[in-house]
Amino acid sequence: MNKLTLNTLFKSSAGFSSLALRIPVGIILAAHGAQKLFGWFGGYGLEGTGQWMASIGLAPGYLMALMAGSAEFFGGIALILGFLTRPAAAVSAFTMLVAIFFVHINHGLFMSNNGYEFALSLFAATLALAIQGGGRLSVDKKLSSLLSR
To answer: CA Rg, the chain, in Å?
Structure first.
């Protein structure tokens, strides 16, 4: 990857608004990923999550759990730091679309019925971050500044 491509990846014209999205969304994603990967916070871990994913048609379940959990956990940490914000947010947005259409869509909008409103909110926030980047207070911004020299 050349310097211009890297600078394009890290550059962001967003101000502090990205920080207001990155931190809470990153915390939420990392926590949900930790449930899937490690069984933390009342989650089922890879084995249990994998069995559930296979039962709803996302096979192979263990691999799907590993991919979703990794996207959420590592993507969430990346968002908190503002490091590789665009790719982390894009992968997270895709993960939320899968959740919406494979898990929640048949239950309607509202969370009280296991609907898609929460996943849709996370999708919108991560899509916005994929578009605008990490913002002023991010590792990406610092790397972009270094690459511009």
So the answer is: 16
- Cα–Cα distances in angstroms (integers) from residue 125 to residues 26, 60, 94, 115, 137, in the given order: 10, 28, 12, 18, 17
The answer to pTM > 0.85 is yes
**Rounded to an integer, what distance in angstroms lies between the CA atom of residue 116 and that of residue 72?**
17
What digits encode the pLDDT tens for the residues 29-72? 999 999 999 999 999 999 999 999 999 999 999 999 999 999 99
Rounded to the nearest angstrom, the gap between the alpha carbon of residue 6 and the centroid of all alpha carbons in its chain is 21
Residue 115: other Cβ atoms inside 10 A? 18
67: CB partners within 8 A, 6+ apart: none
**Residue 131, H or E segment:** helix 117-132
Is residue 149 scored above 80 in pLDDT? no
- Amino acid (one-letter) located at 22: R
